[in-house]
Every structure is written in C-alpha cells, then in structure tokens.
Queue: 2 jobs
Job 1
Amino acid sequence: MENKKCPAAKKCGGCQYQGIPYEEQLKQKQTKVRKLLEPFGKVKPIIGMENPYHYRNKVHAVFDRQKNGTIVSGVYQEGTHKVVPVTECLIEDQKADAIINDIRGLLKSFKIKVYNEDTRYGLLRHVLIRRGFASGEIMVVLVLASPILPSKNNFVKALLKLHPEITTVLINVNDKKTSMVLGEKETVIYGKGYIEDQLCGCRFRISAKSFYQVNPVQTEVLYGKAIELAGLTGEERVLDAYCGIGTIGMIAAKSAREVIGVELNKDAVRDAVRNAKLNGIKNIRFFQGDAGAFMRKMAMQKEKADVVFMDPPRSGSTEEFMESAVRLSPEKIVYISCNPETLARDLKYLTKKGYQMKEAWPVDMFGFTGHVETVVLLSRKLPGSHINVKVEFGEGRGKVPLKAISERTETYKPKERVKFLS
Ligand code: SAH
C-alpha cells in the first residue's frame, strides 16, 4: 500500500502511527490486543481497513488568529491549547476539510471574528462537520461564543453556493471556558438539524451531540461481527447497553424477539427512538439513564436477558453494571470495546464471575492512530444453569416498582412503549 505523508505530522500528534506502513500498524495493534487478552482466550487476526485514508466522517476544527493576524483552523497541539493549522488530513473526510477551509475563507468578508481563549473576545470557536458516507448528507455546526451570528442567512447562502451538498447548518453556543467543543444550546439555521446515514441495512438519524462511530466502513464490519458472535435465533431477549443512537440494538432486532436499549445521553436516546420508527422496528425500547443503575434495577426485579451487548466508552464498564449483568445471567455477553486496557480489566471481573471468553476480534477502526477496537464473545460457563452470585443490597431495598425505570424515558418514548417489562 502506498504510504502517504502528512504535512502536519510533527506538530499535530493526532496520529501516533504516522510514517509507519499500514500493515505494520496492524501488526502492532494485534500484538497489543494479544498481550492484553490472550490470558482470557483466543485472539483472532485483526480485521484491517481496505483503505486506511480519509475514513473519518466527523471532523472538528478549532479556529484561531495568529500573531500576524492570519486566521487558521486546525487542531490543538497535544496537551496544549496551541492551534496547529491543518488544511488537509490523511484520515479526515476530504469534503469536510474542504468545507472547513472555505468557512475560514468566508470569515473576513462577513466580519466574523474568531474567538480568543485568553481574552475571551471574538465569536467563532470551532466548526464540526458530520457526513453520512452512505447518504451523502452533511451537517455543519458552527460553535460560537455567543448566540448571534451576524448576517447568518447570507453566510449560509455563501457557504451553500460553495458546497451545495451541505444539508443542514446549526449554531451551537459554547460560552464556557472549557475544552469541550459543544455547548448545550443549539439552533438550526438551515435544513432539518440532523443528518441521516445507513449502516447494515438500517437508517440512522444523527444529531450534532449524539455518538456515532467515526469510521462507518469498519463499523459495518464490527457490528456484523458482533451480531454473528451473538448467534441470534429470533427467540432472544437482547439488551443493548451503552446503545448510543440504537445502532447495534436495531440491527439485532431483526433477528431477536425483543431488544432493550439503555443510554445516558438524552439526544442520543431521542435519536434512537426516532430511528426505531424510521426503520419500522417495533420490538425495541429505549431507556435513558446510567447503564449500571438500569442493570441493577433489572437484576433486582429478576428480569431476564439472553444476550447482552455492551459497548461502553473508553473508561470501560463499571462493577455495578457487570455485577448486575452477571445476576441477569445471559447466555452470551458480546463486549465491544474501544480500549483494550479497560476491556482486559473488565474481562478479569467477568471471567471470575462465571463467564468465559470464547473469542476476541480486534478490528481496526482508527488507522494511523494508536486506538484499536475489539469485539469479544463471552459465554456463560455452565449453559442452562444460573450462576449464583452473592450480591448485597441495603436493607429494605426490595423490588423497585417498574415505573421507576419507565419514568426515565417518558419524554422520549411513544405512549405505547411507556409501560416497561410486562
Ligand atoms: N453502541 C453505540 C455507542 C457506543 S459509544 C454505537 O456503536 O454507536 C458509548 C456510549 O455510551 C455513548 O453513546 C455514551 O453516551 C454512552 N454512555 C457513557 N456513559 C454511560 C453510562 N454510564 N450509561 C449509559 N450510557 C453511557
């Protein structure tokens, strides 16, 4: 494979594997996962990308004014708040990079000042682009320090003239001294305020703040593997924990009896509920809240799950979640992880509590970076039998009324779905 060079490599620091041939990167990732997971079972060969360039469907740029007055956009230098100018990136979507460059070019004529983090003066802080690779839809989010964008209609018009492929533009207000990109408040100034994309034959609506995998090509590979490992027959009750906008659960719903999704982020849950409708999927319900607390309630109510998919953030899962998962005693747990270190930590717990790692598949979702995704199949050690785990709860904490769980999602769920766990 041709080895492309990145002009910002030395300063950006985003790609730890810059300059290393792709095949070699895969080898190193394989070795890393193997070292961490082989104590638990078999690690399969890593599934690499066919084309490791420009795979990112989500691109973020921070804006800054240099000492000589030049406006730049790019990334923070690692560990600092210094902006490294980036005009092209080997892993980002090229269309998104072109839009960011053109936004930079428009600022002067629209007299839009970029924000200065020290003086807290200026307007434009960041631009975030999301592109649906399958749908072609593009979202542009202008992150501003205050809510008013002068001549916003003309700005949008000028931007659309350069990029008619943009389908929605939003203003997000971030007036805090923070390293978070997006603030709370959001206004749609063009289009529907979200994009749609397709994965594994399902359509998904994606909001600015919802989590959506950044590499859709490999996501299909990853989800495909996760579903295959679950070996669904159509009879199962499936739990999709840390479900985001409901992707895995919805794909699983086609071959399961029933799916329950749980997710903390409100916007993502709202997307998930609408996504189920969009796809005409009726055997799925979503709950908003902490996955650990939710699982604990399920376990206390002696609920059942045959298969648990869990896809926690980089920090991994929690003991509360896993303890309850073990009490629910599903036949299979499919753990999808973007951090092999926390995965190994959690596997240590689960394998001590009656589960066995059957196989682990590393999947490369993030070429040129040091990150690696892994999907693991765990099976209950004694099929057909329940595992007795001693779990202690405080005095008087008996069965929690079912309402307690359903209340969390009332705002998001269509009426007929409010009743939970019949
Ligand atoms: N399965 C989804 C999302 C995975 S990312 C997908 O493949 O697209 C991890 C998700 O966990 C994020 O959506 C994040 O908002 C959510 N999350 C983080 N902490 C959580 C918690 N304590 N309880 C439930 N969800 C949580």
Note: The chain has two domains: 10-50+215-380, 58-199.
Job 2
Amino acid sequence: MSGSVTLVGAGPGDVGLLTLKGRGAIETADVVVYDRLVSPEILALIPPDTRTINVGKASSNHLVPQEQINQILLDEALAGNHVVRLKGGDPFLFGRGGEELELLVEHGVGFEVVPGITSAISVPAYGGIPVTHRDCCSSLHIITGHARAGKPLEINFEALVGTKGTLVFLMGVSSLPQICQGLLDAGMAGDMPAAVMERGTTPRQRRISATLATLPQEAVAQKVESPAIIVVGKVCALAEDFDWFDKLPLKGKSFIVTRPKERAGTLSGRLRSLGAQVSEYPCIETVDITPCPAMDDALSRLSEYEWLAFTSPAGVETLWRHLRAQGKDTRALGGVKLAAIGAGTDRTLQTHGLQADYIPEVYDALHLGQGLGKLATGKVLILRAQQGSPDLTEALEQAKIEMDDIAIYTTQYENPQSAQLRQQIETAETWVTFTSASTVKGFVSSVGADADFSKVKGICIGAQTAQEAQTYGIATKVAQKATINSMVETILKENLEEPSWT
Ligand code: SAH
C-alpha cells in the first residue's frame, strides 16, 4: 500500500482554530510529524496509539534540520504510512511547506494540503486589531523579520512605507529595533501606532501597544519573547476599543480538570472559551468488572425489580458494554423503571434511547436514596462503582426498600507526571475542578498526600466531593447544582466577587 503526506496547518494556538479537515487528518493518521509551535491542546487530539515525531524540540534548542524533516516525511510515506505533517499557523506562510513537498513530488508520493489559520491575521484579531479597516489602510503586508546569521535584514523599508498599508512582521522579536529603525529611516512617522503580540490566541497572550518610536524599548521593558508578531499601522489604535480576548472573565487563571479522559472535554472547552488556561489531568480511570456474575444473575431476574438505579454515566456505559458483549441491547431491560442520580447520567441513558423515570432534585447519592425510598414499592437494583457511597443504600434501608447493590466497575487512580503537577499546585494559585470524591482521591494520590494544598482552590460538584477535598486542606466551593453548567457558573461568580472559600 502506498503512503501519503497531508500537510496540515494547526493554526496559531487556540485549539478551536484548527480546521475540521485538519482535525480529521490528525485523527486518521498513522504518524504525526509536528513542530514546536503546535499547541499542547492540539497535540492532545492525536489518538494515543498514533506514532508521533517531534521535529522541533525547543528544550535543547536543537531543531531537526529541514533536509532531515523532508527525508523523514518521504521515508514514512514510502513505508506505506499516512503521514500528517502538522505545522503552526498556515503551512505555506513562512512555514517551509513548499520545501517539504518538493522531495515528495520528486519521488511521486501523493500529498494534500490543509491550510491553517495564520498567526499573521488571527493573532492581531485576538488582540483587537483588525489587519485592515477602510479608514486606515488599503493593503496588508506580511514580512519575515528573520535575518540570516550575521547578515542585515533584507527588507525594502521604503517600498513598505510607500504602501501606507498595515505591516505584520513574523519572526521579528530579535530584529525589532532594526525593523522599527528601518521604517523610521524610510520616513514613517514615529507616532505611528504599533504593537507586539506574544503567544497570541493562547491563555498566555500579551499585547504590548506603543508607537513605532517607542515599541523597541517597551518590548525590552516587558521582556517580550518569541513567538510574537509585530504589527505596525493605524489599525493598531483600534485595539483599545476592539480588545476582547484579554477581557474574557477567566483570562490569566489556571485550571486543572481532573475528570476521566472520556468526559473531560466539555468542562475544559467551556473554561477555555472563557479565557482560562486548562490542563486536563485525568486522575481516575474506570475499569469494568469482567466477568461480573452478580450483574449477570441480577439481569437474568430483572423482572423481579421495580427500579434500576444508576449513579454515574460510567455505570450506564459499563452496563451497555456488558449487554453488547452478550449480544444483547436496550431491549434486555424490559419495563424496569430507571432512576438516574443526575442530569449527566440521564443524558447518557438518552444516548441509548432511554430516559430516567426519576432524577432527584439534588444530584447526590443521599437524595437519590431518599427519593427512591418514597417512590419505590418493589425491589431496587443498583448498578454502580465498587466504592459507591453508603448514603444511597442507607437511605433505602431506612425506607425499608429491598435492594441489590452490585458493583459493576472499579475506579482506579492514575499516577502520571506527579512531580510536575505537584510543583504547579505548590507554586501558583491553581483552580482544580473535582467532579466526584474519587477525583479528589486520585488528584491527591497523584501529587502526594503530604503536598502543600494551600494554593489549591477546589471547585466541587457536590457536598461529598467538597468534604473529601477539605480533609486535605483544600479550600472548596460547591456548585449549586451537581452539573457542569453549575460548576462553570460557580467559577465565574467566585472569579468576579471576592471569593469566600470554606
Ligand atoms: N506558518 C506560521 C508562521 C511560522 S513563522 C503561521 O502561518 O502563523 C513563526 C512565527 O510566527 C513566529 O516567530 C511568530 O512571529 C509567529 N507566530 C506563530 N504563532 C504565533 C502566536 N501564537 N503568537 C504570536 N506569534 C506567532
């Protein structure tokens, strides 16, 4: 089978600015060859069993030479792989994408190009700078500010100034003084608005606004680092009115989302769209108990039960995996009534074409037990985690309801990169979201119970989760309702008001 190469532009950093076509290519690749500028959130979209090759290791400052990258792409494709070459921004704008295709053409290897959103236009946009505006200019020029080692810049400043257009310089941080001087010498006014934008479209984005004359000293004073782009032109003055990204409510805040991997996405996405820096840190993993004779037995006698209760989306999924493995489907549940601990569990039931007959007002084990205690006249079957809360069974016992409480999965703690996580939470204020008591346990076991949790702000889905967090000295805030929406609302409220942590 012959391989091929897809050149994919990853965009400027914000994962939402990757194209659908780019995402599809990443998800179906055999190998992904990526650069330094591709953001971690985009790299996280690469399926775990896909091979990756990093050709831009920033740590050692040792970049893989271009010829070698070209060769890697060729060799991988000739070996029959579908290769995705993932590059920052757009692959053809100062991205050497053309060079990478030449060797492929020479060897008759098939390729496709998926353009990306370039930093040259999107980074100014995130800083409130439209690169053109009818009142300001009638052209846009994108220039490399990179000079070959020991050589002066090869830029025709007179021609650029003559256009009266917006000028965007990429790779220009180290030549910033020469660029500004070149424009001044070519007759551009010293008070022309100008800006540098660092790490644009990411939670660490910074815009430094100045004038052509003052920009170099401002950039030094504020320690601007690469990657950054330089924008020169009247449009830069519009940033004061049009700035929006830096005003997002959670800009500058760091979050750790501890949900299991399959379910982290929605919460992380919501927080990111509010400007937060989010690291997904799945501390727990659910593992089905297989075989599970107790569940088999209960299911074979399902007509004996009036209610079937679920206390998590994971429980619902485990049951359906189990049914599928036995060649059964939703019909196996017959007419049993369904109870779900909360809206998330009900939504998971809905993906299987079912709807909960009962969801308690407050989404926790105690209220589920009390509610079912009032409703049930027959026997209740509970299918849930091994470490399930006793609140549920105690409430049913008190109501004298007969039940079978069957463990169908276990929660295991993952323990990756604990030293890094520990350092992060001990050195800076970090907001950590906890969606169950077991995520608290998983988080604590990852950083070590003896860590200093005094800088951690725990946003908890419910009272039990908060109680668990407080035992480790974590300051907590409980969402009003046990939903992701309510957690986000709580975060926003705490962020705006002076927080009062308990
Ligand atoms: N092909 C890329 C550009 C590659 S050249 C594109 O289309 O965006 C690398 C330069 O791009 C960096 O030196 C910097 O000037 C700019 N750049 C890329 N991403 C950036 C970002 N998130 N913020 C600011 N500048 C960025």
Note: The CA atoms of residues 146 and 171 lie 5 Å apart.
